[in-house]
Amino acid sequence: MTGTDSDLVVLKLGGSVITDKDSPETVDDEALHRVLDAVASTSKSEDGRLVVVHGGGSFGHVHAADHGVSTTTGTSDAAAATAIHGAMKRLNGVVVDRLQERGVAALPVHPLSVAARDAEGVLSLPAGATEGLLEEGFVPVLHGDVIAHANEGVTVLSGDEIVTSLADSLGASRVGLCSTVPGVLDEHDAVIEEVRSFEDVASVLGDSESTDVSGGMAGKVQELLDLGAPAHIFGPDAVGDFLTGERAGTLVDGR
Amino acid sequence: MTGTDSDLVVLKLGGSVITDKDSPETVDDEALHRVLDAVASTSKSEDGRLVVVHGGGSFGHVHAADHGVSTTTGTSDAAAATAIHGAMKRLNGVVVDRLQERGVAALPVHPLSVAARDAEGVLSLPAGATEGLLEEGFVPVLHGDVIAHANEGVTVLSGDEIVTSLADSLGASRVGLCSTVPGVLDEHDAVIEEVRSFEDVASVLGDSESTDVSGGMAGKVQELLDLGAPAHIFGPDAVGDFLTGERAGTLVDGR
């Protein structure tokens, strides 16, 4: 985190980065330790405020797929909702615990408790609790989840949706998406330095390859272009660079 | 639950009712089964909407006392906050699981994720997620917790505070507080049928006897008198009566 006290950074840790997506409810310990070490070493030495959001990986997505639940198709079965929500809470507990072990004042924020969608699928995510925790020096840690969705029961809320919502409502100064790839790649698999409009990259962005109820790179880039803040997409090695304000991966800035 | 589809009942299960207050993190299995059986048998046969709120008992209060945290004195120690919050989540998990086992579509709502206090201690608890779950046929289950509190870190949010906040913001038609006593008792330990103003009972209300960071009967009655809905204070045997609209314990109604 860089700059003034009021700077707010939103860091998303991709579910594919911190879990083994091929094995149900399995943390990728080495990757998680690496990215959390980077978070801890920067967040303790800088003045800015940090929100962490993580995806589902092999915790949330497997259960969501099992129950046929997506961001638009829901379930009214409380047990199915609990299977997805409970798995995400277990992953969140690991992330929060390991941040606390590193001296970061992390506390959990569970979207099912605070967010909902209306009948048009429009998300409402009041940020007062998250903001209150930030103001008190805590690092709120949110996660992909299920949330109430009018006429659908509960549907999936992706980590990426949380990032864009919070970046907007809290006025983030920078947004970072830590992905399994080192940035948005061109046709030669080289990292594209900057994306200023979707036309810049439309020819090279394919769909996400693994099972992912929350969309691939094309959707991420489109959402980040609509943010009111500069965003970076980068790999696990670049978390520290991003948090200290260095160039990391691909800058996506549609402002 | 009685009457029309739009009727909303808020039921608070006292922490002293569902836990053994003398033994850390111990559920009172017999009492919990009894009250949840009553909830299940009425909530499945009626059309109204139900919110359950439970207190901390030997889960939350012990940790809150250990760390010197109350509704007005906070902590900025993430580990202390997690000790209290984690204990309350464990109790909440038990309540939610056992309701689901009985066929009630219970889902957890954790106040730390949604509520905060300002520097004057005024509570903000946006009810959109809880309302969304209700509209989709779920039974939200909230609990006493710690929440962000401006200039204090996190402080305790009592179950009673949640009840009054939600009853107001959701427009509850009836509120019930299941306590260890069968109602507000007079000087001969007989249940007072109705309380219409605090003066009615000022002479007989003492302080709560056990360690309770969230206040005793006097505070409960005062808060319930300020509600815009009739409230009942009753013992574990009367949960079913309350939910089916029968007279239960003491009616507190200051309207």
From TrEMBL, chains A, B:
One of its GO terms (biological process) is isoprenoid biosynthetic process. Keywords: ATP-binding, Isoprene biosynthesis, Kinase, Nucleotide-binding, Transferase. One of its GO terms (molecular function) is isopentenyl phosphate kinase activity. It is an enzyme of class 2 (transferase). Pfam families: AA_kinase. Residues 8-227 form the Aspartate/glutamate/uridylate kinase domain. Catalyzes the phosphorylation of isopentenyl phosphate (IP) to isopentenyl diphosphate (IPP). Functions in an alternate mevalonate (MVA) pathway leading to IPP, a key precursor for the biosynthesis of isoprenoid compounds such as archaeal membrane lipids. Belongs to the isopentenyl phosphate kinase family. This is Isopentenyl phosphate kinase. It comes from Halohasta litorea.
